[in-house]
Amino acid sequence: MDPLHLSLAVFCGGLVGLTLGLIGGGGSIMATPLLLYVVGLPPHVAIGTGALSVSANALFNFAGHARCGHVRWRSALIFAAVGTLGALVGSTLGKHFDGQRLLFLFAVLMMVVGLLMLRAKPAAAEADRTCTLGKELPRVSGAALAVGGLSGFFGIGGGFLIVPGLLVSTRMPMIFAVGSSLLAVATFGLATALNYAASGLVDWPVAGLYVVGGVLGGLAGRRMASALAPHHTAFTRLFSGVIFVVAAYMLWRTVGSMAT
């Protein structure tokens, strides 16, 4: 790949990292479209490469939350372990699914994410709860399998699904759900990426540069988040609008490709 496209990989990774650092959940949904339409990777390679970069960036952010004590380790480990099985199944199905149809469904998912981000409200703090090996385990395992399967099929981090899954199944406070979810994002993405890599569907140079850009962008985004905190809702709505535009473009491209 020529230097221009490698530079674009760093730039696009930086955009994803900046968005994640600035507004949090939902930012990684842009990883695959940017790799697809800006960097120029084929559909399945874009999904496999995007999954690897999302995994690395999630692990980087997870370390920060762990240092701050924002991780409920038992819940996080159970959700990550069970959900990784779902991610392996989902990614196996995804890489054998027609590329254009997969992108069409991905665009529909982006529309759903955009709507969820528009409707999201600050969560009220709940009583401190954690996962036990009793009643919570079946709920956590069921949610993890479902979310992991979707994450693997579409090659996304799935944080916008993992956080609600943890909240509903364990009733832990939001800050711990966010911190704990990042371990699952990292493991789901890694499982998906390795599954795609086994079929030669990961562009390793692009993935490495995408991760570098994502880390740098994430650092900048987290610094900006504090200063721009009063405008967080406005940024979230703006980003939702961007998601709708990109999803509409993907639908137009994929429907046209499937019709020919």
What layout of secondary structure does this protein have?
Blueprint: H1 3-23, H2 31-39, H3 43-67, H4 73-95, H5 99-119, H6 136-154, H7 159-170, H8 174-197, H9 204-227, H10 232-259
Family: Belongs to the 4-toluene sulfonate uptake permease (TSUP) (TC 2.A.102) family.
Membrane topology: Multi-pass membrane protein
InterPro entries: TM_pro_TauE-like, TSUP/Inactive_protease-like
Question: How is this structure best summarized?
Answer:
The chain is mainly α and 260 residues long. Helix content is 79%, strand content 0%.
Q: In words, what does this structure look like?
A:
It is found in: Cell membrane; Membrane. The chain crosses the membrane at residues 6-27, 34-59, 71-90, 102-120, 140-163, 175-198, 204-222, 234-252. It comes from Lichenibacterium minor. It is a single chain. With 260 residues, the protein is mainly α. The chain has one domain (3-259). Helix content is 79%, strand content 0%. It is built from ten helices and no strands. α1 (3-23) runs parallel beside α9 (204-227), α4 packs parallel to α6 (136-154) and α6 crosses α8. It is globular, with a radius of gyration of 17 Å. The model is unreliable at 122-127 (pLDDT under 50).
Task: Name the descriptors.
10 helices, mainly alpha
Shape: globular
* Count of DSSP H/I helices: 10
Which structural category do the helix and sheet elements fall into? mainly alpha
Please state the oligomeric state of the protein chains shown: single chain
List SSEs in N-to-C order: HHHHHHHHHH
**Main sheet specs:** none
What integer value in Å does the Rg equal? 17 Å
* Count of folded domains: 1
Give the N-terminus to C-terminus distance in angstroms.
28 Å
Number of strands: 0
Beta-strand fraction estimate: under 5%
| Average pLDDT reading | 83
Uncertain spans: 122-127
Helical coverage, percent range: over 70%
